[in-house]
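Let's practice the habit of predicting before peeking. Look at the sequence and jot down your guess about where helices and strands might fall. Then scroll down.
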Amino acid sequence: MELTASQKKYLRGLTHHINPVVMVADKGLTDNVMAEIEQALAHHELVKIKLRGEKDARTRWVGSITESTGAALVHEIGQVASFYRRNPDNPKIALPG
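Done guessing? Here is the structure:
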């Protein structure tokens, strides 16, 4: 999923007031963690994920999450990354054109 610069800016503004819903830690992206991420994206569309690991691991995890979920990376700063995936059945966020 590709987002324009203005859409990313809009979504970044929305992420300021939400808390991380999933944490990836020592065990990495297990099947259970991926299932939680899928569920969170389906329900919220825009999620923050706490990535507790070294920079190399965080970079790999972000790539794996975007690839396996089809979500777009909205923002990544430090150990927190935000992802967006539109819910086709029940969209909650109206993106600017």
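How did you do? The chain has three helices and four strands.
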